[in-house]
Amino acid sequence: MGDASHCGQFMNCAAGRGFVFDCPEGLAWNPATYKCDWPDQVEDCDAESFLGFSCPAPAPKSELLGEQEADYTFHPSQDNCQVYFICIEGRPRRIGCSEDQAFNQELKQCDDIENVPNCSSAIREKGAQIKAARLHAKKN
Hints:
Blueprint: E1 9-14, E2 17-22, E3 28-30, E4 35-37, H1 47-51, E5 72-76, E6 83-88, E7 91-96, E8 101-104, E9 109-112, H2 121-139
Antiparallel strand pairs: 1-2, 3-4, 5-6, 6-7, 8-9
């Protein structure tokens, strides 16, 4: 359903009725495989428009220093510290951290939210509450 910039929905028909479903956030419907997939893997999906993120141009390669061009790069979301993008061959994929974690730019992965200073106090509080609830549940 939709167009190249809105490719996260699909319709399933049962008993003559159509039902609209949403792929999980950051994934697009792939009509070739009949499943939700990374938007950069879906031929008719414009991953950048769909995700609202454009991968930056790769840094120039230095032949003198023997630098290797990375196959992929990591970029924090400007809107949400619990989301980041991986650019693979210049095309983005959206990755979300769990509720008690956030993207740590130094580690290039999700980390305990208290280790990520750029999160808002509201997100930090919510993450701390979730972490405390999980620890309490493990004790019982």
